Every structure is written in structure tokens, then in C-alpha cells.
Amino acid sequence: DTGVSQNPRHKITKRGQNVTFRCDPISEHNRLYWYRQTLGQGPEFLTYFQNEAQLEKSRLLSDRFSAERPKGSFSTLEIQRTEQGDSAMYLCASSQPSDTQYFGPGTRLTVL
Amino acid sequence: AQSVAQPEDQVNVAEGNPLTVKCTYSVSGNPYLFWYVQYPNRGLQFLLKYITGDNLVKGSYGFEAEFNKSQTSFHLKKPSALVSDSALYFCAVRGRSNFNKFYFGSGTKLNVKP
Questions:
Q1: pLDDT tens-digit map of A36-50
Q2: Which residue among A42, A45, A91 places its CB closest to the CB of B43?
Q3: Which residue of A has its CA nearest to B107?
Q4: Among A32, A63, B71, B73, which residue's CB has the most CB atoms within a 10 Å radius?
Q5: Cis preceding-peptide flag for A8 (omega within 30 of 0)
Q6: Tens of pLDDT along B27-70?
Q7: Can you give the C-alpha Rg of chain B in angstroms?
Q8: Do the chains contact at B43 and A44, CB–CB below 8 Å?
Q9: Considering CB atoms only, which of B42, B98, B105 is closest to A42?
Q10: How far is it, in rounded angstroms, from Cα B26 to Cα A27?
Q11: Nearest Cα residue in chain A from B109
């Protein structure tokens, strides 16, 4: 499968714990994006990378959230001190510059 | 600012009948518009896009969309619905000043009944 992959697919954690998600983009895509989707809503932009550079961060991305793409390939999204309001589907997408974004299957986070 | 609106939370249609899922947009200048489909517990799958050219855009799985500049709409259509088309559909517009940011509608749930 040469599409975007995300791991884990599901994560259940207790409030206050840290969690980390991984995204592997389509190999020739140099743009990588993170979105958050809550129930009944469309995806909301969080941040994006061009190669290893993080070029924009949404105001939704509080100080507890950090994303990295150290070698311009895979990316990680870490949430520290999780809160119940962080429960959502976290979607990763990748693209060529100014082109269609292709999405992974998502990681569903449940914070108890 | 860029935004899209999907005025219907849910659309019900009988199998074999034509379907329409509505989307209106608000963007300065020429819009870049997209449709995605989401099945339960899955990510979004790209269906089609409008960048420029013909107002009728054909996409995956027999779907098409009609761009109407005067009505600022980009409705998704299919001549004959299948039960397997039942899913959540999202319209999106690409940011004008930031090509890398997509703005999504709230989604429309399509129910196709046998």
C-alpha cells in the first residue's frame, strides 16, 4: 500500500498522560499536514510541513501539542498532559506542492 | 476568508435515483474546490476537484460536480445512487493566500436505501 499510513489507529489514554501519533506520507510528497476532526464536524487544520520545516501552526494547536518531521519523511504529533477535550480523530495528509491532499486512515484518540 | 457550507446534514435517496449533495463557498478570487468521502472510522478519500476549465468535473466512482460561479456553488452529483455510496461527504476549499490550508464543510451524511 503506497498511501498515507497512520499509527496507532486507536489510542485510549487517561487524562494527564502523554500520547504520540505517527504519520508516514506518500513517499514522493514533500508536504505533510495534520488535521483534527471531532464528531459531526469537518477536519480542522492544525499544522503543516514542507520537508522538515514546520511552516504554519493553527491557533488550535496549544502549547501541549507539538509536531515534528525530523528528516522530511514521517511525522509525529505529540500531545502532552491530555485533556478530555483532546478526544478526536487526528488525520494526516500529504501532497505535492499546491496539489490535492491525500489522507491517511486517522488515529482516534479517546481520553478518559 | 475562505469557507464552505454544506446546508444539509443528511440526504436520503433511494438506490437507482440521482443524488445531489450541496456545497456553497465563500472565497475571494477563483476558488479551488474539492470533494472527499469518508466511510465509518476511515480517513477521507479524494473524489474530485475543480481548479479551472469545464464547470462539470468528473471524479471517482461515477461522481461528478458542477461548479457554478454565479451561485457560488459546487454541488456533488451522481446519476444513479448505490447503497455502497452511503457515507459522509465533505466539500473543501483551498486557501487563497495559503495554498496549503484546506477549509472543510461540516459534512453531509448520504443514506442510500435499497
A1: 999 889 999 999 999
A2: A91
A3: A42
A4: A32
A5: yes
A6: 877 789 999 999 987 789 999 999 888 899 999 999 999 999 99
A7: 13
A8: no
A9: B105
A10: 33
A11: A40
- Hey, CA dihedral for A14, A15, A16, A17, is it positive or negative? positive
| Residue of B44, B98, B99 lying closest to A103 (CB–CB) | B44
Give the Cα separation of B49 and B79 in Å (integer). Answer: 18
Given a cut of 90, whether residue A61 has pLDDT beyond it is no
- Minimum distance, in Å, between the CA of residue A81 and any CA atom of chain B: 25
Which three-class secondary structure state does DSSP give residue B61? helix
Distance CA A110, CA A53 (A): 29
The DSSP string of A46-110 is EEEEETTEEEEE-TTS-TTEEEE-TTSS-EEEEESS--GGG-EEEEEEEESTTS--EE---EEEE
Contact with chain B for residue A23, Cβ under 8 A: no
